[in-house]
Specification:
The structure is a homodimer. In chain A, strands 1, 2, 3, 4, 5, 6, 7, 8, 9 and 10 form a 10-stranded mixed beta sheet that branches. Chain A has helices at 27-39, 72-82, 137-144, 195-208, 215-222; strands spanning 2-10, 46-47, 56-66, 87-95, 106-116, 129-131, 149-152, 167-178, 181-188, 237-244. The radius of gyration of chain A is 19 Å and the shape is globular. The mean pLDDT of chain A is 96. The relative contact order of chain A is 0.19. In chain A, helix 3 (137-144) crosses helix 4. In chain A, strand 8 and strand 9 (181-188) form a beta hairpin. By secondary structure, chain A is of the alpha+beta class. The interface between A and B is medium-sized, with 23 and 23 residues.
């Protein structure tokens, strides 16, 4: 028996999110199906992040246990041959039997992408939120700074999460504008349900001028979901990577 | 009667190219259908560039004649309401009755995008050519320089083009690497059939080390399609913009 870790990338457009659900096509469900066929045993992977429907990933992390003789490093090649084009395993390796992608400290990096132009660019429609009104990226950047550090992020959490506490630490948030693309890149030790999308939705309102930058601090202090902006669309969100202290 | 110009963007993935063909879904065909419905008269647009199946555009240019009373500037809004999500009109305006997007001098800008990493990124699979072997962007840049200027580009032209001469002028080619993305951006007064894709395919071979940079000059001088590299995949190509002296 060995435990194998996968670095998993996917285009979330055609999936009902990561987590296995009856009668729905999910990323974990499709990987389980192809891994089980490949290895000839029933495989159930456990993922680090249960991304929502339509959310993308470059580096989600998952593990599974197997009796296979195939070296762990080769599994990514064999599995990619079977998977649909919108899921690709970037890496596979063996980890210790008690290594789990969720129950340990990690640094997660998410990106939220906004395309800011008069009409959408069709080639970006599945991977960026389109906003036609001109956004002020400098004010968004200023507002984002209030979120850095350890805070109670209750204002940025949708109902339905299962966490015991709404305190999280954000290590950094960068807002960058290049041409008509604005990228919000956020790193933290963990994120509440819809947290990055609510932060993005609030920053968009600030970028439009609905609120001033300092409103972000008021929202944070209120600890009330109703104070923050809307949850921005799933298609703009991408889980970029997860880094572990005990790699 | 007035002549209206459209700036047309599309995701070419699901189209058999620009040009109307019987029994095939094409970009011009779909626009003709929706424009005709919108304006209540039969419309046939004429495009600047007949992009191939799978090729994308941010700024292709087209014109049509119409009897409509709708101001030309409003047509983009009304048409975008009807078009599928993978086609968007960026702008519409009235031009003089003899203005044509093909039969006059213009500067065209194309981009060819390569993603260079061990396994594909699923969110880029429709908009970038994936290459797993490490490419040397500096050598590609050096090789590209040989193509700048007025030359006979017969080595970079697939059979099936309808041009009278294979002489064209390339104003600039830039090869830029950012992370795992290499972008080849080329500007010229016109391009032969598959010319940008053959240039990209040749630069990829040079980037892999199959040829040295100076081989590009030999290929150009040979005026023989068999000397150049393969035609790179359509999905990496995007027509970015077309600029006219007589706008």
């Amino acid at each position: 028996m060995k435990r194998v870790r996968l670095i998993v990338s996917y285009d979330g457009t055609n999936y009902c999110g990561w987590q296995v659900q009856d009668n729905e096509t999910t990323v974990a469900g499709v990987i389980n199906e192809h891994l089980s066929e490949l290895l000839g045993e029933e495989i159930k992977i456990a993922g680090a992040s249960r991304t929502d429907s339509g959310v993308h990933a470059l580096g989600n992390v998952a593990v599974f246990d197997t009796e296979t003789q195939i070296p762990a490093e080769k599994i990514c090649f064999a599995l990619n041959q079977r998977l649909p084009e919108d899921i690709r395993i970037q890496e596979s390796d063996e980890v210790s039997a008690d290594w789990h992608p969720r129950f340990q400290d990690s640094k997660k990096t998410y990106e939220y992408t906004i395309i800011n132009r008069r009409f959408p660019d069709p080639t970006k429609r599945l991977y960026a939120h389109w906003e036609y009104g001109e956004l002020d990226a400098e004010t968004m950047k200023e507002a984002a700074e209030y979120l850095v550090g350890e805070h109670d992020f209750a204002s940025f959490c949708s109902a339905g999460g299962q966490q015991e506490t709404t305190i999280r630490e954000i290590y950094s948030i960068n807002v960058e504008k290049e041409g008509d693309i604005i990228t919000i890149r956020v790193q933290g030790n963990g994120f509440l349900y819809n947290m990055v999308r609510i932060i993005a939705g609030t920053l968009i309102e600030i970028g439009k001028g609905t609120y001033e930058a300092s409103k972000m601090k008021e929202i944070l202090d209120a600890k009330d979901r109703n104070e923050a902006g809307p949850t921005a669309r799933a298609n703009g969100l991408k889980l970029v990577k997860i880094e572990y202290e005990n790699a």
